[in-house]
Amino acid sequence: MKELIAALPVGRVLTDPDVTESYARDRTFLRPGKALGVVLAQSRDDVVTTMRWATEHRVPVVPRGAGTGLAGAATAMDGSVVLSLHRMTSILDLSPDDEVAVVEPGVITADLDRAAREHGLMYAPDPSSYEISTIGGNLATNAGGLRCVKYGVTRDSALGLEVVLADGRVLETGRRTMKGVTGYDLTGLFVGSEGTLGVITKATVRLRRAPAEVATVAAEFSSLRDAAAAVSAITAAGCQPSLLELMDRTTLKAIDDWKNIGLDPGTQAMLIAQSDASDSQRAAARMAELCDANGASFTALSGSPEEAAELVGVRRLAYQAKERLGQCLVEDVCVPRSALPEMISAVEAAAARHDVMIATVAHAGDGNLHPVFVFERGLEEPPPQVWAAADEVFREALALGGTLTGEHGVGLLKRRWLALESGPVATEIQHGIKRVFDPLNILNPGKAI
Amino acid sequence: MKELIAALPVGRVLTDPDVTESYARDRTFLRPGKALGVVLAQSRDDVVTTMRWATEHRVPVVPRGAGTGLAGAATAMDGSVVLSLHRMTSILDLSPDDEVAVVEPGVITADLDRAAREHGLMYAPDPSSYEISTIGGNLATNAGGLRCVKYGVTRDSALGLEVVLADGRVLETGRRTMKGVTGYDLTGLFVGSEGTLGVITKATVRLRRAPAEVATVAAEFSSLRDAAAAVSAITAAGCQPSLLELMDRTTLKAIDDWKNIGLDPGTQAMLIAQSDASDSQRAAARMAELCDANGASFTALSGSPEEAAELVGVRRLAYQAKERLGQCLVEDVCVPRSALPEMISAVEAAAARHDVMIATVAHAGDGNLHPVFVFERGLEEPPPQVWAAADEVFREALALGGTLTGEHGVGLLKRRWLALESGPVATEIQHGIKRVFDPLNILNPGKAI
């Protein structure tokens, strides 16, 4: 560590265990190992220096953005060095003509979105954490979000990357253009690789035209399945919502207890749907009709941006509200759209069978559910009945043709189910790819694959 | 070969050189080597058998769809076996609820699109060749097309693949869901890999809602740069066209000579713009205005689907029309959107300086140009002045922040410029990845990377 400290500019390395501990964990309950220290990188050169040193001394490195991950990918292990990119916060270029931005990895997601909006553009990917998470972290996990249903995930906005490899070499991938097929898609390989293949030090991302107007529908239902049926109807009718979010009663209750949103006693589910199309009012009215036709007890439509922001703001509180109830195991299954009602029933059944509190929100338009398993504070890890219920939920998602993780990633949390989805050939290939980039296995070892 | 013939069902292998020759080339001028034979695969098992045999005997295999490629990726080499997938033409599943189809690789692209439209959906990627090219070939090259400007390239519609690896093992990648981040993005790695990593035997692709209406603008300009300026204005105004195509006079003249479209003597360029938004008429009217404001000599707007199909049909004739003029070297540079006018000037300058006929069409909304270098029939390859002009065009594209290939791929044709774009680290990594999948280098050796 003395050598690393000497090789970096003054003040880049933290070694006081009281301070480093907060850099060693993400948003999960997982307890980190004891890291040797934390590098607060401020430039690509800092990252190169750190990786060269790590290669020389075979020290595991855990790259890290803001630590808002929900799968344990940024959890430090014993004897590792945490490499935090959160101080690399420059927006290096923002070109309205090319609809492209070039950013450092520590840029807060919402900050880039705001910068783009000054030019009538937006940065589309918006994980719920987007006010605190970084672009680098979003890229490393291929983060999703609320607007995915129309604009796709982080991968769909990533054009090119600068990456520092395990041995300190610098790799450039991708391009600044809208299209390009020179060589294999290395950009796509890094996106979602959870820091196991390299450290992203710069990204060229695509911006999109910001919508001129939005119209928003909020609908309450006395049954969760009715709400899910409304989701299917909205998709089938071709309404093309720019946001289609579902919250169950447990989630709504947690938000209501905290923020007093005036929750009706009979409300079992709420749907928030938004259209940002040029005929957003008409599209929203159609979505409201479909909610009514599927048994909504209450439906409201608004063309006001302020009301829309408020409603979506309620949804963005969901995770924090649930953290008030206890410790959380946040899950992230994604099923084919048509299987959403069935998946929701399976979650309800698992909660009842194992007597576990599960609060579910869903990016419903994508078939992506977040069942949050709430358990007692103070426990080191979820009790057996929570794991049993989670196991049931995972297996049911796979049985329905779905996946273990729609947008949060595998990290450490989902490794024990990974083989159920990936199979032996894919697993072998993935480890082969890992060896090409990181033959010494020092980059976030044990995560993702 | 006897062993391979015996291992496959009767009739799967062609060895008569007169017959195999037509399977050994693509749409380029490149002369293929002498293949040992052609396998006409009808099932995954045929592919597995072929690859096991090829691994055992170290025989290079050239996977192939319909042979409509424009970069030489499907050009056979001496002593190779061509593995054609064009007989695997089943649409195995088409789910309107999930907006997903599962297809064999030999399905003709436009056939899938038509099948989807029966359910109010579409398969968005539409390379100009889409009436004759296959989904497998489109995946292998990450084909683009006219609708890319709104709906993205083939990659953006590929959810999951079944792939036979070099040694005959079967790998499944990806998923059926809209989102998913389990493991590295192997689907993305295969898309655009030009048959060098594995043979795609099944694909799960995303369908999209078919637009209810389209409005189309055709505008003629007396200067190509004016047309390019109109493109920039349309993008900057946020019109979000679903198609934005540019043709230069040489292209128009070739089409006119063939199909008599009544080309005006003063027309130097034509722009075709389309909107399929719910307010398509309004969007098209705005695009027409912007054409007028940028010096269009003639502008027509139509809401009729028949007229739209006719206009777009004219554009789709471009390549065939040019083939009537001579042999073609079809290029495919892509530049940041704002650099389109500059790139067009560079192409015109290169044509003048080297006294070469270049006919340019562009997916203008994406900054993707196809300068087609026309040269004399009967020549074995383009004469030196064509290569010199092409070299200038490539270097200028890179200097403008662009790429050598937006959608056609590297194949054999662009290999000599590859290092200019990729750099040594990316090249080494790509060869490392190739070795993970194909350690004996039998899958389409010498292509793509």
Summarize the structure.
Chains A, B: Its cofactor is FAD. Chain A has 449 residues and is α+β, with helices and mostly antiparallel strands. Chain A contains 15 helices and 18 strands.
Description:
- 2 copies of one chain form a homodimer.
- Chain A has 449 residues and is an alpha+beta fold.
- Among the domains of chain A are: 91-209, Uridine Diphospho-n-acetylenolpyruvylglucosamine Reductase, domain 3 (2-Layer Sandwich), CATH 3.30.465; 211-321, Alpha-Beta Plaits (2-Layer Sandwich), CATH 3.30.70; 326-409, Alpha-Beta Plaits.
- Helix content of chain A is 35%, strand content 21%.
- Chain A is built from 15 helices and 18 strands.
- The first copy, chain A, has helices spanning 2-7, 17-20, 44-57, 109-117, 135-141, 148-151, 186-190, 224-236, 249-259, 280-293, 305-316, 318-323, 340-354, 384-399, 415-437, and strands spanning 13-14, 37-40, 61-64, 81-84, 91-95, 100-103, 121-122, 158-164, 170-174, 199-206, 208-209, 215-221, 243-248, 269-275, 296-302, 327-330, 357-363, 368-375.
- Chain A has a 7-stranded antiparallel sheet, with helices on both faces. A 5-stranded antiparallel sheet of chain A has the order 5-6-10-8-9. The first copy, chain A, has a 4-stranded mixed sheet with strand order 1-2-4-3.
- In chain A, a hairpin with a 4-residue loop joins strand 17 (357-363) and strand 18 (368-375).
- In chain A, helix 8 packs across helix 10 and helix 13 (340-354) packs antiparallel against helix 14.
- The longest helix of chain A is centred in the C-terminal third of the chain and has 23 residues, at 415-437.
- Chain A is globular, with a radius of gyration of 22 Å.
- In chain A, 61% of the residues are buried.
- The mean pLDDT of chain A is 96.
